[in-house]
Amino acid sequence: MKAPRGTRDVLPGETEKWQKIEKIARRVFSLYNYGEIRTPIFEDTSLFERSIGASTDIVEKEMYTFLDKKGRSLTLRPEGTAGVVRAYLEHKLYSRGGLEKFFYIGPFFRYERPQAGRNRQFYQVGVEAIGSDNPALDAEVIRLSLDFLNSLGLKTLQVSLNSIGCSACQPVYRNGLQEFLEKHLEELCDDCRERARRNPLRVLDCKREKCIAIVEDAPATLDFLCPSCKTHFESVRRYLDVLGTIYELSPRLVRGLDYYTRTTFEIVHSGLGAQNAVAGGGRFDRLIEEFGGKPTPAVGFAAGVDRIALIMGKGEEKSARGGNAPIVYIATAGREYLEECILLLNDLRSSGVSAEMDYDGRSLKSQFRVADKLGVRFAIILGQEGIILRDMRKGEQKEVKREEIIDGVKSCIMT
RNA sequence: GUGGGCGUAGCUCAGUUGGUUAGAGCACCAGGUUGUGGCCCUGGGGGCCGGGGGUUCGAAUCCCCUCGCUCACCCCA
Q: Which residues are within 8 A (CB) of A321 and not within 5 positions of it... i.e. 6 or more apart?
């Protein structure tokens, strides 16, 4: 038996790391006033086709799509924004007046060739702020992303920033780029020839040397921005400067989802290899309207939990189970003490002291070996001579009365 | 979807030009200490040698297929 390709188990010992990531995500996102939203793992297929874009790789070849028993086409969510926007509209959350801020944590699915930091079931944390086009919000989301990653102890992060314009200027740029690409069609790789026709922006981040060289001379998105997009972008940059956030302009940073407008950004980490993006995001000012809502600007980001865990794992490989070892281990001199043992165990746990015992009827020596391996603070021995409390660290022990055990243990933990 | 590397014990890996019952270290279990851990010593349990097929008197070793892992392309978080 094996977990399906591209999926994996996170076992005790590693889950602690994941819990830490989630805990810090909740804390940081709460500081910025984002509230948690939980949307379904699967949605109607059309939701993703319409939001992500029918000609994107994600929709064309990476979705887990299936028919349910009534013949409905459903898809395991490949990203988080679509579901949040759907929920926002379905529950008419716009009626609450102003800006709505959401964060989410959960699994997503894409049918891709597994690789370091790329699984078919992967986890993301992300935020969406819906209802404002204020560039301060763009800057805030970027700031928040970095806050989150920094709080986890990640260093050597690099922010790339770009603006790809709005519904007014993006088509103009698209045409300009397309014209340029037409002239160089022969020199482009096969993929890019196809992209030039269907989704020209994607040519910009082709990794082949030939294409990179050609694209060097291609028109940049920033040169085509309309006045309002230009002002918006300048403000984003100013606010980032005010916040002391270092970034670099990446005129060729184009994201793989069609709904992005204006600000796009990506955060990469040097220790990740080819899959080096730990977080990415941007504005999606058209998406709500495309789903039938009123024109509503929005901005968000998502970070890859698997990749973060990968980076964190490089520094401090084994944290073992030190942090959550039981406090007490009860050893017995024989089976006849079993009842006393389970009762004491229960009393300890009831008063908030984590405790463990031997279920295998092992020798006292073996029980101590287990207690030592677990890393417990105290061992209690039940036997003919009464009850003995042993401090495993100090190696000291003394006889205690039954009714004094729990308080004794508790007072020792305090000191 | 394409290409490279790799699959031997729970883990990390040996395994000589194909040749006896496939090994080591760590981990695990038991004993040494007839109620007491860590160190040490002794012993022990564990392997469809990823799976299937083929070549051969004989395959962990050679060939083919397949599955998986991994790195890169691609894509993205």
A: A12, A13, A16, A374, A375
